[in-house]
């Protein structure tokens, strides 16, 4: 997974996304992912969700797909620019979602969720970013194989 969402959070009642800076005794220090970052302390009364823990409902056997995988699918298919107009209507969001994740559960995934997905994708793409190196390194580390650079270095010796 080339994107790490473990340190990115959404706070209920607050717009945008936040980076988890540091835990405190009474909550968590968060920094907004904006041009001019602002810090806040999310306490127990705030409902905070890490994006790494959020999933999209699907109709297949697994039942859900992690948000990080959905972001990766969007990035692979569309890159930086989503195929949504300036003021997309509900049908346009549904078509976008079906093009990215054809097995999404249209009974349990609402248009408001799709709007959040698009908005969060823009923020994550701009401030967190996707790295192809991380994807390659992660898949090769999982297999325990050597990289092509390591192989060529061994051949040179």
UniProtKB/TrEMBL annotation:
Xref: Pfam families: DUF5606, DUF6852
| Biased amino acid composition, Basic and acidic residues | 140-157
Q: Where is the DUF5606 domain?
A: 5-51
**Region described as Disordered: spans on this chain:** 135-157
Instruction: Provide the DUF6852 domain boundaries.
Output: 54-123
InterPro entries in the cross-refs: BVU_3817-like_C_sf, BVU_3817_N_sf, DUF5606, DUF6852
Protein's name according to its UniProt entry: Uncharacterized protein
């Amino acid at each position: 997974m080339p994107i790490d969402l473990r340190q990115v959070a959404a706070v209920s009642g607050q717009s945008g996304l936040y980076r988890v800076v540091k835990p405190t005794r009474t909550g968590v220090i968060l920094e907004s992912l904006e041009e001019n970052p602002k810090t806040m302390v999310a306490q127990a009364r705030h409902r905070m969700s890490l994006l790494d823990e959020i999933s999209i409902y699907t109709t297949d056997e697994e039942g859900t797909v992690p948000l990080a995988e959905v972001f990766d699918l969007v990035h692979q298919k569309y890159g930086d620019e989503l195929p949504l107009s300036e003021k997309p209507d509900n049908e346009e969001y549904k078509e976008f979602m079906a093009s990215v994740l054809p097995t999404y559960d249209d009974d349990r995934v609402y248009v408001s969720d799709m709007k959040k997905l698009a908005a969060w994708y823009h923020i994550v793409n701009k401030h967190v970013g996707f790295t192809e190196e991380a994807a390659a390194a992660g898949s090769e580390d999982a297999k325990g194989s050597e990289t092509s650079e390591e192989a060529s270095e061994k051949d040179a010796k």
